[in-house]
């Protein structure tokens, strides 16, 4: 009777696991080299929009479901998203996996930074923690691993510095230009103008679907008490200029027009 009960439990567990669909890329990645980061995290520049000031979560939707403790925000229940929305931008965000190590693989210090609420750069405790490489810290989830693993030890603070180029869509909903991301993890380049293949779901291949030109920054709740601090963003604007005269060469006091 006991053997039959155990067998039934095993069968039920197998059915449950099999029914959970997961998208697999089919790419066998090489392990990113492990390096030791060597820079300090940075304060916001004067023109940055500060998204978390160490005091409250008033800039975030669903902020009441997360906590602020000792000047840092701690993952709570559900995704939180900024009330303000962004397109092309520079983002700085610092995060820390729990000091007490629990779990392994994707179950250890898991969260995520979602650009425009759609495209995930993975947050995970990848310090001496093996998992699939396109799901480790600083990966674009299920699309590419980082170039290196620059993780600090559990409990220490990590910094992501992200340059984001939002995708553009044609009026008919087709893709005009894809999203691109350049990112540094603790000062080390981990993504170099990577072209995203689309969104970053767990259970299917990436795809693009037309959306607004701007979107929120979102942080994921994955059931782990990951901490965040020093979050700021700078919308990217191209330099503005106006042609006021024809091009010319200057040699001392002599100016020579350049023919068009």
Q: Tell me what the CATH architecture is.
A: Sandwich
CATH class division: Mainly Beta
Cα-to-Cα separation, first versus last residue: 93 Å
Helices and strands: which structural class?
mainly beta
Helices, by number, come to 1
What name goes with the CATH superfamily?
Exo-inulinase, domain 1
Shape verdict: globular
Strand element count: 17
Which percent range fits the helix content? Answer: under 10%
Low-confidence stretches: 5-19
Q: What is the number of independent domains?
A: 1
Biggest sheet descriptor: 8 strands, antiparallel
Mean pLDDT: 89
From the 3D structure, determine the CATH topology.
Jelly Rolls
Kindly estimate the percentage of residues that lie in beta strands according to DSSP: 25-35%
Order of helices and strands: HEEEEEEEEEEEEEEEEE
Q: How large is the radius of gyration?
A: 22 Å
List keywords for this structure.
260 residues, mainly beta, Jelly Rolls, 5-stranded antiparallel β-sheet, 17 strands
């Amino acid at each position: 009777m006991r053997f039959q009960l155990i067998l039934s439990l095993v069968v039920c567990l197998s059915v449950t696991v099999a029914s959970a669909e997961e998208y697999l890329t089919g790419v066998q990645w090489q392990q990113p080299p492990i390096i030791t980061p060597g820079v300090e995290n940075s304060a916001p520049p004067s023109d940055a929009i500060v998204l978390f000031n160490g005091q409250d979560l008033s800039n975030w939707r669903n902020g009441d479901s997360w906590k602020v403790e000792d000047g840092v925000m701690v993952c709570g229940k559900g995704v939180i998203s900024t009330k303000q929305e962004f397109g092309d931008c520079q983002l700085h965000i610092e995060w820390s996996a729990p000091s007490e190590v629990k779990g392994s693989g994707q179950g250890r210090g898991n969260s995520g930074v979602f650009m425009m609420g759609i495209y995930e750069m993975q947050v995970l405790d990848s310090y001496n923690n093996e998992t699939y490489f396109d799901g480790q810290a600083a990966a674009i989830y299920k699309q590419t691993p980082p170039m290196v693993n620059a993780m600090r030890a559990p409990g220490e603070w990590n910094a992501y510095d992200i340059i984001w180029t939002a995708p553009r869509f044609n009026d008919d909903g087709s893709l005009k230009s894809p999203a691109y991301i350049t990112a540094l993890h603790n000062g080390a380049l981990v993504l170099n103008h990577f072209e995203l293949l689309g969104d970053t779901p767990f259970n299917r291949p990436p795809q693009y679907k037309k959306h607004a030109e701007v979107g929120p920054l979102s942080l994921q709740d994955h059931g782990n008490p990951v901490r965040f601090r020093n979050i700021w963003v700078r919308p990217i604007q191209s330099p503005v200029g106006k042609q006021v005269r024809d091009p010319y060469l200057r040699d001392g006091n002599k100016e020579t027009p350049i023919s068009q």
